[in-house]
Amino acid sequence: MVKYLFIILLILEITGCAPSHFVKPLEHKQHAITGSFGGVLTKVPGVATIPIPNTSLGYGYGLKPKTTIYGNWYTTAAIFGVFQLDVGATQGLWQNSKKTMGVSISPSFNFMVDVYEKNTRLWPQLDANYYLDYFSKEKKDRLNKNHFYVGISNWFELQGTKAHAQKQTNHIIFSPQIGHIFERGKWNYTLEVKFMAPYASNQNIVVDYVSPFGKYGGMGTFFGITYKL
């Protein structure tokens, strides 16, 4: 059991991943509460192939018509003694005249502290997404919408060395993503697939990642819920 707890903790520290936050900016002065579940698909010996169960709780606010600020606390990491928090903003860059498609960017900072070893890490992150709205339908007292999006997520590694004093060779972790948002009135449901570092070898590491690219990268699956106030 201790071995598997160590593996889970290590995965949390080296991936710390979550679905995209607020692909579309919130309305001006709108509040939102969010939650997410999911992670990199991993083969657990004697169990199954499952996504590492990273969970998070968050909050967002429409600071301006095209600007949303947010923060997220990672609850699974906390269970294993890692305080993990991200703070950032989503900025709308372009939208067509019908407001059915657009482009946004989301700069953020991911901060982790191992409460047992007192190690701290900081990762800047920059996401960019293109979204497309389709199939809007009035239903009773709510408006149902669907949003498709595709984008990229970039983590920036600031440390010069990695585990066992090895030289850090990947200072930018590039991960394409594709997702879908089901907007049902005040409730939004998000499904996302993220292709984690598809150019980096996944061999000779402590976990057995599942990847459509064989010996390279990993694939993460995520489910998110947002409630708009």
What does this structure look like?
By secondary structure, the chain is mainly beta. It has one domain (about 1-229): Lipocalin. About 10% of the residues lie in helices and about 60% in strands. The protein contains two helices and eleven strands; from the N terminus they run αββββαβββββββ. It has helices at about 1-15, 75-80, and strands at about 30-45, 50, 55-65, 65-75, 80-95, 100-115, 120-140, 140-155, 170-185, 185-200, 215-229. Strands 1-3-4-5-6-7-8-9-10-11 form a ten-stranded antiparallel beta barrel. A hairpin with a 2-residue loop joins strand 3 (about 55-65) and strand 4. The model is unreliable at about 1-15 (pLDDT under 50).
Fill in the keyword field for this structure:
mainly beta, 11 strands, 229 residues, Lipocalin, 2 helices
Short précis:
This protein is mainly beta.
Strand order of the largest sheet: 1-3-4-5-6-7-8-9-10-11
CATH class: Mainly Beta
Unreliable runs: 1-14
Elements, N to C (H/E)? HEEEEHEEEEEEE
Biggest sheet: strands, sense, closure?
10 strands, antiparallel, barrel
The tally of strands reads 11
Number of domains: 1
Number of helices: 2
Chart the SSEs and their pairings:
Elements: H1 2-15, E1 31-44, E2 48-51, E3 54-64, E4 67-74, H2 75-79, E5 82-95, E6 101-114, E7 120-139, E8 142-156, E9 172-184, E10 187-201, E11 216-228
Antiparallel strand pairs: 1-2, 1-3, 1-11, 3-4, 4-5, 5-6, 6-7, 7-8, 8-9, 9-10, 10-11
